[in-house]
Specification:
Strand content of chain A: 15-25%
Strand order of the largest sheet of chain B: 6-5-4-1-7-8-9
Helix content of chain A: 25-40%
Number of strands of chain A: 19
Strand content of chain B: 15-25%
Radius of gyration of chain A: 22 Å
Number of strands of chain B: 9
Number of helices of chain A: 17
Largest sheet of chain A: 5 strands, parallel
Strand order of the largest sheet of chain A: 5-4-3-6-7
Helix content of chain B: 25-40%
Largest sheet of chain B: 7 strands, mixed
Oligomer: heterodimer
Structural class of chain A: alpha/beta
Structural class of chain B: alpha/beta
Chain lengths: ~500, ~210
């Protein structure tokens, strides 16, 4: 390939990370950052120990606890009642200490869901390759990084070699042009895409999201979109970095050009790598980084294996009705009938989903009552999500039939929300205000649904039993979840009477 | 990893599309720090019934609880098997239960990779071919299939013969039981050369200030 061949964003990032392409074997791809959490890492560390292998680059690993941690109170997090969960978290502490990995522990100011803290700390950057033993690693693609989830054997592989053998995925560009109608969010865009292409619609592909509606999104919105790429089966999702990306990253703790701080939070100019540096040097480092990142766009005339165009102005607030994220419709629609299924196999899934979800085809979505509302997760647990939900809730009270909780995605989001007074809006409306973690998105900690309970959830998966055995999950945007909490049933946010 | 060449066994049919890893192994079993002992948790919510007190009993209607399918080393399913969460526990549970191969029209990417690392043979056949095998194994639980990795074929005594595609490198690893990390480290000179340049690219480093 010559330098003048037009390349996609994905191809640029891929090529920059090729260590070697041995004949007849997968490409060996360099991994810039591996994020680590308690659930998918213990067996990987054990593998290193058994093989007596060192961890090649501890400085390219960062760990936190998120999946297992209780969210009820600081005390419940420090003294975890579930012995097996507690042992797993203790194992992570020991492993990080043994192998020299920086760990953001349960009450550290930096703790949070692994896909929240990477961007917040500026660890995630355009052009990087990022992996984690978690399928929602695709979130980081919002910055123009190539980021994907891996299994535990691969986690061990990265620990030992800082590389992964990878077959080159295909490319898929989804262009969303036009203006989003009021009340329609990033979550509705990605749910509409999954509904259109199906949960295996992008298997084997890396999606690049492009178009004016994507450009107009904040970093929070872009992360929501890339986060759910895996729900369409994609290997990863990416969005080219631009001024919005750079503005988000500037000044973050591990961003280029940010002077390292001392314990007082002030620039630590005596740190070894800072000696002799001036403010101008830091500024120059930032400018050089932005110059490098700015090249990470798909060249005009570059081609993709697949393309899809979506007109943003035609979208409406989405709600899933079934047991797969592809079983989605809009708030003004009804539960689809068997005739709406695309294949015989889908008909079988529909029939099973009606039974599991206790829904009849033809039921208006707005007529479905909910028992629980969960606001949080790496999909929608960011400050913008909490602001949108608080705006809906302000001046109202949660329906007496509903239990509702807000679980900020990270300590940083929690603090920011409290500084803005959002916590008081939620608690005075009857929401529980929790400590950060994955929580009811997957119900590994005590936050689960009871059998038969129906939940409006801002998370990413509505699989059978995902939020608790027998629990029924409907995915939707934060504002829509907030409205359902108030009225006790799914409610069209486009007609909401805001009281704030 | 044990090398595999051919496998002849009865097959357990699970005729559903989009079987996600949350169904293969529910989250409560992901808190364990061991790599073994997952066999009893495979398809947990489908395999057991639960009373109000949380007591479990094997669900007699579920295929794995039917005595006639005991000992099946091949699992048959419909498209997009293993979608959702990246949990390798799903591959461990399938393998430790005793399945050595899964036949389906398609598999989700991460599960596909995880299965390979654990020596599970994943066979992609067409929808129609899988349908035929599901029908035969449903009608006769003693029906045996033979998977030949060398020839990349699935055959049965009733004349079924299907060829499947397989990445040559993956086949080589399965046939020889190779360790991936060891294979990568054979290229360590290239890795060292790459890193000596790449480490200077601070804009691609997690902690840019110390790069």
């Amino acid at each position: 390939m010559t330098a003048s061949t037009p390349r996609t964003l994905f191809e640029k990032v891929w090529q920059q990370h090729v260590v070697t392409e041995p004949a007849g074997e997968p490409t060996i791809l360099y991994i810039d950052l591996q994020l680590v959490h308690e659930v998918t890492s213990p067996q990987a560390f054990e593998g290193l120990r058994l093989a007596n292998r060192p961890l090649r680059h501890p400085e390219r690993h960062v760990a936190t606890v998120d999946h297992n941690v209780p969210t009820t109170s600081v005390h419940d997090r420090l003294v975890i009642a579930d012995q097996i969960a507690d042992a797993q978290i203790k194992a992570l502490r020991k492993n990080c200490a043994d192998y020299g990995i920086e760990l953001f522990d349960v009450q550290d100011a930096e703790q949070g869901i692994v896909h929240m803290i990477g961007p917040e700390l500026g660890l995630t950057k355009p052009g990087m390759t990022i992996v984690c033993g978690d399928s929602h690693t695709s979130t980081h693609g919002a910055f123009g990084a190539l980021a994907f989830g891996i299994g535990t054997s691969e986690v061990e592989h990265v620990m030992a070699t800082q590389t992964l053998p990878q077959d080159k995925p295909k490319t898929f560009r989804i262009t969303v042009d036009g203006e989003l109608p009021t009340g329609v969010t990033a979550k509705d865009i990605i749910l509409a895409i999954i509904g259109k292409i199906g949960t295996d619609g992008a298997t084997g592909h890396v999606i690049e999201y492009a178009g004016s509606a994507i450009r107009a999104l904040s970093m929070e919105g872009r992360m929501t979109i890339c986060n759910m790429s895996i729900e369409a089966g994609a290997r990863a999702g990416m969005i080219a970095p631009d001024a919005t990306t750079f503005a988000y990253l500037k000044g973050r703790r591990f961003s280029p050009g940010t002077p390292p701080t001392n314990l007082n939070g002030r620039p630590d100019l005596n740190a070894a790598h800072n000696i002799g540096k001036t403010t101008d040097d830091f500024e120059a480092q930032w400018n050089l980084a932005v110059e490098q990142w700015s090249a990470l766009v798909t060249d005009t005339n570059a081609t993709f294996d697949r393309e899809l165009h979506i007109d943003a102005s035609t979208l409406a607030p989405s709600v899933t009705w079934g047991t797969s994220p592809g079983m989605v419709t809009t708030i003004d629609a009804t539960v689809p009938s068997l005739a709406d299924a695309r294949s015989e196999a889908d008909q079988k899934s529909f029939a099973r989903a009606y039974e599991y979800m206790d829904l009849k085809p033809g039921t208006p979505i707005e007529a479905i009552k909910v028992d629980a509302v969960f606001l949080g997760s790496c999909t929608n647990g960011r400050i913008e999500d909490l602001r949108a939900a608080a705006k809906v809730v302000d001046g109202y009270h949660v329906a007496t039939t509903v239990r509702a909780m807000v679980v900020p995605g990270s300590q940083a989001v929690k603090k920011q929300a409290e500084d803005e007074g959002l916590d008081r809006i939620f608690t005075s409306a009857g929401f529980e205000w929790r400590e950060p973690g994955c929580s009811m998105c997957l119900g590994m900690n005590p936050d689960i649904l009871s059998p038969g309970e129906r939940c409006a959830s801002t998370s990413n998966r509505n699989f059978e039993g995902r939020q608790g055995r027998g629990g029924r999950t409907h995915l939707l945007s934060p504002a829509m979840a907030a409205a359902a909490a108030i009225t006790g049933h799914f409610t069209d946010i486009r007609t909401w009477k805001f009281r704030s | 990893m044990t090398p595999i060449n051919t496998l002849t066994s009865t097959a357990a049919p699970l005729p559903l599309p989009n079987i996600d890893t949350d169904q293969i192994i529910p989250k409560q079993f992901l808190k364990r720090i061991e790599r073994t002992g997952y066999e009893d948790f495979l398809f947990y919510d489908w395999r057991y019934t639960f009373d109000d007190k949380g007591n479990t009993r094997p669900n007699p209607d579920f295929v794995l609880n039917k005595p006639e399918y005991k000992g099946a080393e091949i699992l048959l399913a419909e498209r997009n098997f293993g979608c959702g969460s990246s949990r390798e526990h799903a591959a461990w549970a399938i393998n430790q239960y005793g399945f050595l191969a899964v036949i389906a029209p398609s598999f989700a990417d991460i599960f596909f990779s995880n299965a390979g690392k654990n020596g599970i043979i994943l066979v992609r056949l067409t929808d129609a071919e899988v349908e035929t095998l599901i029908q035969r194994s449903t009608a006769n639980p003693q029906h045996k299939l033979t998977i030949s990795l060398e020839d990349q074929t699935v055959t049965d005594p009733d004349g079924f013969h299907a060829h499947f595609d397989m990445d040559p490198f993956r086949k080589h690893c399965l046939l020889n039981g190779l360790d991936d990390i060891g294979l990568t480290l054979l290229h360590e000179d290239k890795l060292n050369a790459y890193e000596s340049n790449h480490q200077k690219e601070f804009w691609l480093s997690p902690k840019s200030q110390t790069a």
